[in-house]
Structure formats: C-alpha cells, structure tokens
Amino acid sequence: MKAMVLTAPGELVLDEVAKPARGTGDVLVRVTHSGICGTDYKIFNGSIPVRYPRIMGHEMAGDVVDAGGGTLRAGDRVIVDPELYCGACFHCRIGQTHLCPNGQLLGRDANGGFAEYLAAPATHVFPLPDGIDRCAAPIIQVLTTCLHAQRRIDIFPGESVVVLGLGVTGQLHVQLAKARGATVIGVTRSAEKRALAERLGADLAFPGGDDAVRMVREATEGRGPDVVIETTGVVQQLASAVTMVRSGGRILMYGIITAKEGALPFYDLYYKELSLINARVAKSEDYPGAIGLVQRGQVRLEPLISDVMPLGELKAAIGMLGSDGGAQRMKIVLEHGG
Looking at the 3D structure of the chain, how many domains does it have? Predict the structure, then answer.
C-alpha cells in the first residue's frame, strides 16, 4: 500500500509499504480522510521523538475492509480512536484508560493513518452515520478531547463561559458550551476567527489583548464569567483566565502548556478560591457522544476546515502549519483518493 513515511526529522516520503495485517480482534480500515494535528507537526520536526520509520496520523476516518466477524461490516463508514491502552493496569481497571502508562498513540508510538490502510482494535472503531460528511469526520477525534475536557468541568445551563483562543479546539469548545446551555464569549486577536465563533453560536466575541479582561467583566455584570476555557497553551493566557474568572469560578486548562516557568497571579488563586481543572486526550466512551452531537447538528465541523489536500502533499501541508500564516489556518484535511 501507499503511505507517507517519516524516515527522520523532516524527511517524509510517499512510499510503498506492506499492508497491515488484521490481528485477532482488529478491524482493517481503508482510510479515506485524515486530519493534521500540531502533534504531527512536532513529530515531523523531531521535537516529539519517535522510532523511525514511522507513519504519522491519528485523526482518521474511512471504510471497513475486514471486520473479522464483529458487529461492524465491510463497507461501514467509521472513525478510529487512536488512543490504545493495555486494559490491565491500575488506571485501566478504574476506567482511566486515557492515563494508561502502557498506552500508545497511533501515529506516534505505532503506525497511524497517513496511509491507505490501518488496522485497529475493534473496540476503537466506531460507525459513522451517513449524514456526517466524510471530509469533516476526522475532526471528531479532536472533538472527543474537547468533550472529555468539558465533562470534567461540568458546565450548567445559564452559566457564562469564556473561551480563550478560537482555533479549531476553541471553536469546538464554543459549540459544546453552547450545546450545554451556556452564554458563550470567545476571545482572540483574529477578527476572522471571532466572526466564525459568532456564526457557530458564540453570544459575544472580543479581541484578545489588554482590554479583554475588562470587556469580559463588563459583559458578565462586573463579576467575571463562571468558567474560562484556556485553549492556547500560553502561560500568559492562563494568567488572564485567573484574573478574568469570577470568585469561586472554574478554569479549564485545555491548552497544552510546555513552558517550564511563568508568572501567574497566585494570590488570586487563593483569594478567589478558584478551581483549576486539567484535561488530557479522551476516552473511547467519548466517541459515541461526540458523533451524536455532530449527527444532531449541535456541533458543526465543516466550517473548521481551511484546506483540503491530497495525501501525497502531506509534507507541504505540514509546512503550511509552520509558516507565518499557520496560526490563521484551521484544520487541514487530507484526501486519500481511491
């Protein structure tokens, strides 16, 4: 089969490789579409080390080729959960499969979806209703991580929620919070992304910067929002969330902060009695819920796609993420062809 193979940092080639064998309990999937993630960019440039050669890609959807006698059938449209777990460790036994110390991510620790075919455990392959667009389907994997995060923070109808950063995950958080009945405010420097957030359900959208805290407080009766969801992974934005949220409020640390140090208003954490809640990836149980939200139209995925490119142009697509305009792009989806 054809696959995009990473042979070293920055060295990515379209190659002919062996088609994966379907093991016991696995499903063989012909991948039709895949999405590019920031993790793929970091694997590509070597900042996330992997064993070479490696086929990247962990956001993928396609058609079942061989289901091995399970509930799925050949031809079924599916999405694959790339987070594998052992099922036997302490975390798996208590339902925290996403924290499994023996876990693997397809596309990082094992070959992933930037290929014609992929074999995955049947427990990690979920059917897609016909009404869900094929091209947008890989974004459901991203949606599951947002859904998992919001399930940890418990947003209630009538609460006010601020989303800091309106990239793909920020736009998904806007829609999820709106589906829960919240009043939603998006914050970003990008006028285009603010406009998109309002089209997707945000009640208000403010420019990022020095005035953001003031504008949010004015819009929430002077006390600040009940919840702030930080999606950028920037310490300064987390500091803004601490300043912005109301006393007794909650902050969802969704963005991945890799900085080793940074300034935070620590006294406010104490004085305002804030709850900081972190979230990591997703669990398989988040997939049916995410698929249902898309099927019912409560979350729209198509507006989040900025580019659609052939699989063979993966290297160019990853380069677009790292270019000067990369921050303005939304999701790049790859079409795998016939």
Answer: 2
Instruction: Note whether residue 196 is domain-resident.
Output: yes
Tokens representing 166 are 């309106």
CA nearest 307: which of 337, 335, 336, 333? 333
Domain region containing 116 = 2-137+301-335
Question: Cα dihedral sign for 252, 255, 258, 264?
Answer: negative
User: Helix, strand, or coil here: 6?
Assistant: strand
Q: What is the pLDDT of residues 128-183, one digit of tens each?
A: 999 999 999 999 999 999 999 999 999 999 999 999 999 999 999 999 999 999 99
Residues 207, 128 within the same domain: no
Strand partners, 128: none
* Structural contact between residues 98 and 52, judged by C-beta atoms closer than 8 angstroms: no
Return d(Cα 172, Cα 146) in angstroms, integer.
7
pLDDT on residue 323: 65
For 180-216, write each residue's pLDDT tens digit: 999 999 999 999 999 999 999 999 999 998 899 999 9
pLDDT tens by residue, 269-280: 999 999 999 999
Same-domain status, 43 and 119: yes
| pTM, entire model | 0.96
SS3 track for the chain: CEEEEEEECCEEEEEECCCCCCCCCEEEEEEEEEECCHHHHHHHHCCCCCCCCECCCCEEEEEEEECCCCCCCCCCEEEECCEECCCCCHHHHCCCHHHCCCCEEECCCECCCCECEEEEEHHHEEECCCCCCCCCCCHHHHHHHHHHHHHHHCCCCCCEEEEECCCHHHHHHHHHHHHCCCEEEEECCCHHHHHHHHHCCCCEEECCCCCHHHHHHHHCCCCCCCEEEECCCCHHHHHHHHHHCCCCCEEEECCCCCCCCCCCCHHHHHHCCCEEEECCCCCCCHHHHHHHHHHCCCCCCHHHEEEEEEHHHHHHHHHHHCCCCHHHCCEEEEECCC
pLDDT digits (tens, 9 = 90+) for 236-277: 999 999 999 999 999 999 999 989 999 999 999 999 999 999
